[in-house]
Write a structure and sequence with these properties.
Blueprint (H helix, E strand, L loop, with lengths): L7 H4 L3 E5 L9 E4 L7 E3 L2 E6 L3 E8 L3 E12 L2 E11 L7 H24 L1
Antiparallel strand pairs: 1-2, 2-3, 4-5, 5-6, 6-7
């Protein structure tokens, strides 16, 4: 499900439009709708993609900021566990703490939506 970008609008309340090919080295386009504030379009690069295991995307503003987003799927006793994380680097990260906190709320909402979608299929 994480690599099926054209289906994100069916389940993801945070990323309502997504397109591109999930291939290492390629950029994808994501239209994100934070809980507060305006929608924003980002074009992160795919740095790792193994369907059903892990997806990593990196967005950059050269010289100022980079953010790596990771989705890792691990088998567990109850099915599959999703670990979602982000790592931020760059001189403006300290000024983005409010936006980073707000994005975590969106990730939690997306995680619940993904869980509901996976359990329904």
């Amino acid at each position: 499900m994480l690599v099926e970008l054209d289906r994100y609008q069916e389940w993801n309340p945070h990323i309502r439009r997504a397109h591109g090919v999930v291939t290492v080295g390629k950029k994808v386009t994501l239209r994100m709708h934070p809980p507060k504030g305006r929608a924003v379009t980002i074009r992160p690069r795919v740095t790792f993609a193994e369907p059903g295991v892990e997806l990593r995307l990196v967005g950059r503003v050269p010289g100022l900021f980079s953010g790596e987003h990771r989705f890792v799927l691990r088998p567990s006793g109850q099915g599959t566990h999703l670990e979602q994380s982000e790592t931020y680097r760059g001189p403006i990260v300290a000024f983005l703490s409010g936006a980073i906190r707000a994005s975590r709320t969106s990730f939690e909402t997306s995680n619940r939506a993904l869980k509901d979608r996976a359990e329904a299929t």
